Amino acid sequence: MAKLLIATSAVFAIMGAAAIAQASPQTAAAPVVWQGGITITSVSKKCGDDLGAGDFAVGVFRPRLGSAKQASALSIFFARSAKVLTRKRGGTAKMHGSGKYVGTLIDERANTLTGFTGKFDFALNPNNPGKKDRFLQIIGKIGDYSNISGCRIKFNGAFARR
């Protein structure tokens, strides 16, 4: 029942996010983003019981396009918490393939933790998304998720450009 409630909340969150995105004026300097759903496909035991395979989240993916100054980022919104993972500087600053991230966490008690790090491995389809790509799929792995040493998650995300 709890997973149904979380999934229902996530659907309403997606609908609300889509409505806001459609109603919000876009400026010329606004970064290109893809919004959609993320399904957790596996979770290591070190993560504890708060997250499990089949859990659903709303996601926003912002790739670094061209000479943009912002590094790539993936935001993950659950019913009671949120994470923002940003590609650490160095290399291409793009968040596909393997690399390191720096994260921000807002937990179920509205506590904020910033600056934790971990590793990611993302396969994007298309591999190098651009402004003309309407849809994006990410199959990924995130290490030290939620700043928990040894906590590894795998996910599959489906996104549409906004």
Task: Give your account of this protein's structure.
This protein has 162 residues and is mainly β. The chain has one domain (2-23, 32-161). 14% of the residues lie in helices and 44% in strands. It contains one helix and eight strands, in the order αββββββββ. The protein has one helix at residues 2-23; strands spanning 34-43, 56-62, 73-77, 82-87, 97-106, 112-125, 135-143, 152-161. Strand 7 and strand 8 form a beta hairpin. The model is unreliable at 4-25 (pLDDT under 50).
How are the elements arranged and paired?
Blueprint: H1 2-23, E1 34-43, E2 56-62, E3 73-77, E4 82-87, E5 97-106, E6 112-125, E7 135-143, E8 152-161
Question: Which labels suit this protein?
Answer:
8 strands, mainly beta, eight-stranded antiparallel barrel, 162 residues, single chain
